[in-house]
């Protein structure tokens, strides 16, 4: 058990932190929601009702979709784009999908390579792009979930104000939907750009996301 925890400490820690923060968001969101309810002369709701509400679902989904958009774009764009001096970049002479030999696939696969690395055709294509495709799929699903939950929450507010609800097409064009979406996208894109550029000149000793402390600023990717 100790060995399992040690070998999976990064994933386990972030998974635990995710659950703690998600629960914290639920309680804080409930308090904020009930504060608004009381201000409008309405009855507060319970925790179970809130975490199954469209309002909570929209808040969660809008953050998830922006995070996975960040991963999706970063995974695919770093195939062809490089940043001199950044450990977040490939080496400058490895732009593109690289050769089968470099990627250890097909006839160059090793004995301990994943099974599909030995394959060819569609199987190899699918496995070769599986990380980006899954991240992209989670982004799309999260974005759709945000749209559905966001529209439901928006229409609840519309009905409460004795106004007409919006159709899916109307909500797709509504400022509320794009405000929720773009405010998250811009922050994630800024974070990625900051990490790629600041890591050229700054260091964090012992971190896999940083170059060795003594590496020159021009060292790119896994150069030492």
Percent helix range: 55-70%
For the termini, the CA-CA separation is 35 Å
Supply Rg. Answer: 23 Å
State mean pLDDT (0 to 100 scale).
91
Tally of individual domains: 2
Report on the biggest sheet.
Answer: none
Summed up, the helix count is: 9
Low-confidence stretches: none
Measured by DSSP, the beta-strand proportion falls in under 5%
H-E order: HHHHHHHHH
Number of strands: 0
Structural class assignment = mainly alpha
Describe it for me?
The chain is mainly alpha-helical and 224 residues long. The chain has two domains: 1-45, no CATH class; 53-96 and 131-224, no CATH class. Helix content is 64%, strand content 0%. It is elongated, with a radius of gyration of 23 Å. The chain starts with a helix and ends in a 23-residue tail after the last helix. The mean pLDDT is 91.
Question: Which features does this protein show?
Answer:
0% strand, 2 domains, single chain, 224 residues, 9 helices, mainly alpha
Helix-strand blueprint:
Elements: H1 2-7, H2 9-39, H3 47-51, H4 54-80, H5 100-103, H6 121-128, H7 130-160, H8 168-172, H9 175-201
Helix pairs in contact: 4-7, 4-9
Nutshell version of this structure?
The protein is mostly helical and 224 residues long. Helix content is 64%, strand content 0%. The longest helix is centred in the first third of the chain and has 31 residues, at 9-39.
